[in-house]
Amino acid sequence: MIPKDTLKGSSLASHYDSKAEEYDWRGPEVVFGLSYSFANPGESVLDIGIGTGLGSVLFHKAGLHVYGMDVSTEMLEACRSKGFAADLKKHDLTVEPYPYSEASLDHAVCLGVLNFFRDLKIAFREVARILRDSGIFVFVVGDRGPGDEAEFIVGREDTQTDSSVTLYRHGMEEINGLLNDNHFELVRCLEFPVPMDRERTKTLRAKAYVARRRKRI
């Protein structure tokens, strides 16, 4: 869960994968392990904030068609160079509508992105609109437990840049409310630690969720 805001520029984007390995970022394996039994070869998956494609490449290897959107041109180019995405679009995740029609894709995945947003309503609303009935939405957030502040700062010493980054935690009550409001039912969730520095002395308590889109009436 390396802050993508710290990776502006093509040279940094091209090194994102090696940085993720250096920080021992295992979110892609966690979400794929939780959700692979709900997805089938030939189906489609939308990677929201696709970056270099780390969150969806395992779905591609399992036979799914990957669609992706990201605000960063450099990240999209790094992903495009890998040659596995069926379609990539540049789009700001805070702006609706997202560039996909209603009930047009089977599943959605979102890793290392939602921790940048205090308000997740747009993302959940748009995913609910885009997914077909019974599709899954698998995502990771920084988990907010009792006594945790919603907002926290990742310092320059950990971002390895000249600036700090503001991130946000989201608790299970909030997530359940968003799921219910947007016609999802929670299927699985799993808490896991995310290293926030290369020495793994600082960690963020993250939670991966798998939710299923309810059938439209």
Q: What does this entry look like structurally?
A:
With 217 residues, this protein is of the alpha/beta class. The protein has one domain (4-213): Vaccinia Virus protein VP39 (Rossmann fold), CATH 3.40.50. The chain is built from eight helices and nine strands. Strands 1, 2, 3, 4, 5, 6, 7, 8 and 9 form a nine-stranded mixed β-sheet that branches. It starts with 9 loop residues before the first helix and ends with a strand.
Task: Report the top-level CATH class.
Answer: Alpha Beta
CATH superfamily: Vaccinia Virus protein VP39
Low-pLDDT runs of 5+ residues are 1-10
| Proportion of beta-strand residues | 25-35%
Q: Quickly give the CATH architecture.
A: 3-Layer(aba) Sandwich
Compact description:
The chain is α/β, with parallel strands linked by helices and 217 residues long. Helix content is 27%, strand content 29%.
List keywords for this structure.
217 residues; alpha/beta; Rossmann fold; 8 helices; 9 strands; disordered N terminus
Topology:
Layout: H1 10-14, H2 16-22, H3 27-35, E1 44-48, H4 57-61, E2 65-70, H5 73-80, E3 85-90, E4 107-110, H6 121-130, E5 136-143, E6 151-154, H7 156-159, E7 165-170, H8 172-181, E8 184-195, E9 203-213
